[in-house]
Amino acid sequence: MSTIERAEVFVASPGRNFVTLRITTSDGVTGLGDATLNGRELAVAAYLREHVVPLLIGRDPARIEDIWQYLYKGVYWRRGPVTMTAIAAVDTALWDIKGKVAGLPVYQLLGGKSREGVTVYAHASGADVPSLLDDVARFLDLGYRAVRAQAAVPDVAGTYGVRKGEGIYEPASTALPEEQPWDTEAYLGFAPTYLEAVRERFGFGFHLLHDVHHRLTPIEAARFGKRVEDCRLFWMEDPTPAENQEAFRIIRQHTTTPIAVGEVLSSIWDVQQLITEQLIDYVRTTVVHAGGITHLRRIFDLAALYQVRTGSHGATDLSPVTLAAAVHLDTAVPNFGIQEYMPHAPETMEIFRSGVRFADGMLVPSDEPGLGVEYDEQVAQRFPYQPRYLPVARRLDGSVHDW
């Protein structure tokens, strides 16, 4: 019987920090898992090295479900992003191994294709409305069928989601958190106008999305959603912090704009009420932060019972391993909605060699056995860890606000 012989944790910063787990079996088969938690990377790396890796050695890698339950139920302190990210790394690596042993891509192990490709959305932004419109045009010309639109609020330096220059948007860019100003009323007055401008110029032949990024109270979110109904958004993302799930009932009472939530939530219990009471339309939990393929499939299956569709987080703080795993799962599940996609930096792709392909506004998984991703640890050594933190938002009176 094959057993887990070795499990290694790598931390590298090719454009941003990534934590990668590589499991090797006694038969020499390897599997990769992503363990990246933006701004808390070393916490997960230590959790894996000190507390999880010793538990894996000698175990049967084929027993994915049993190992998942062992790592979850076998610890008194359950859930939370550090624990669930560590479990996700193990789970994803084991699925990668199982696919390689079976000689099949992971999506075949999950039931085969439900679709030929995974529709993704691009991230258009601008320092003002004209530059945003130019960016939307650029992505539509590249073949995207869905575009998220964000523009800098005038005189508010802390606007979320706006690239600096021509590079990839990466908010975790400083060794200590950047403290940014925020003005909710200015945002509420401005954001609807640029979403309307996008529709006025480009029409309704593509999906338009917008990320509120937890910035509003429930009634403010209701007001925003009502204002932009004529824009027919695919969704408004994270309109208010999700700790109080009852809050979404208030939003529902006032607007028909679809709601997407879940990228900072890490378990089926965190989204249970949101799904079963149909307070959201799209669940955005991810492979890496919600316990891996095994647990995310459970969340998606629960969502399917309530006509809630998937819309997993997919920013560049999720490594190509997570993107590949997400595309395999998205390809298989019946209630897929859309997948976030931000191409990684070239130096990232020097380390991670992935078979995921972009074509005609969609991602297509690799047909190589497993996930179809390779990790080059020799290249990774050229990119040592660098402390990087996400910003902190402060209202104009100086008090801390939700970033």
UniProtKB/TrEMBL annotation:
Domain Mandelate racemase/muconate lactonizing enzyme C-terminal intervals: 130-258
Top-rank lineage group of the source organism: Bacteria
InterPro entries cross-referenced by the UniProt entry: D-mannonate_dehydratase-like, DgoD-like, Enolase-like_C_sf, Enolase-like_N, Enolase_C-like, Mandel_Rmase/mucon_lact_enz_CS, Mandelate_racemase_C, Mandelate_racemase_N_dom
Entries under CDD domains matching the protein: RspA (cd03322)
PROSITE patterns registered for this protein in UniProt: MR_MLE_1, MR_MLE_2
Protein name per its UniProtKB record: D-galactonate dehydratase family protein
Organism: Pseudonocardia zijingensis
